[in-house]
Request: fold
Amino acid sequence: MKDLEEIIEELKKFRAKRIFIQFADGLRYKIQEIVKKIEEHGFECVISLEPLYGACDVRDLESERLDCDVILHIGHSNFGVPSRIPVVYWDYFYEVDALYALKKEIDKLNQFKKIGLITSLQFVPAMEKVKDYLQKIGKEVYVHKSLKYPGQILGCDVRAAKKIEKKVDCFLYVGAGKFHSLGVTIAVKKPVLSLDVEKKQVYSLEKEKNVWLKKKAWYDVKLKDARRIGIIVCWKKGQNRIDEAEKLKKELENKGKEVYILAFDNVSKDKTEGLKLDGLINLACPRLDDELIF
Ligand code: SF4
Reply:
């Protein structure tokens, strides 16, 4: 992870005066402290309080409107979303004690010898410690690098798990919450356990997966019979799939459906209230399926 001094140097290279700050929600408790330190170097900062879930969300137009010259994107790594103004990505890692929960709950891994480790960006160092510990107690540990860091996944990119699926008995996700871990659980056939550093527990997501699969099967049947369908697209720069939506709309219309393309900034089912629709198809962040269609 880059330290503050390196970030300051990068900002200076762009001769930035006013910086538009976008930050991962988990940094909410720290953001004022971070901004104060940046401002000590003579920069003006504007903090975006709009929800931010990933590097797919780059707010260049909003930054321009507020006369900012650079975006500082804290807590996500660059995955190549184009921007009208420079973006500095700060891969901010969280300081967490993953070993406390792992040691306390290690019995839950007794039946597994070969373990595939996965994590999300903020927990990369914690995963390294988990890897060392598991190897010390005799487990075979597999980690695949398909994004910037070994083992790193996104809600929409679980290649780090898929690539090693055949080699492992189970996956252990090191992180917090279910946004990432449920995405992997749905995508792979091997068991997935979550080492949740906030709850300080190791737990399986099989129950959630089964509920999800049942609901999905039910929803797919419902969608076949639906007459009026809404296709959800999102105008966040890294989630824009409008061409795909247009193509799908034509295909469905050829099958006799009535189809509308519905555009969102932050997608939420509540916003479709009052529309006459029998079903929704999500072409925005895939991890929103649960909220949207169920
Ligand atoms: S599309 Fe969803 S899962 Fe992918 S980076 Fe954006 S917020 Fe994360």
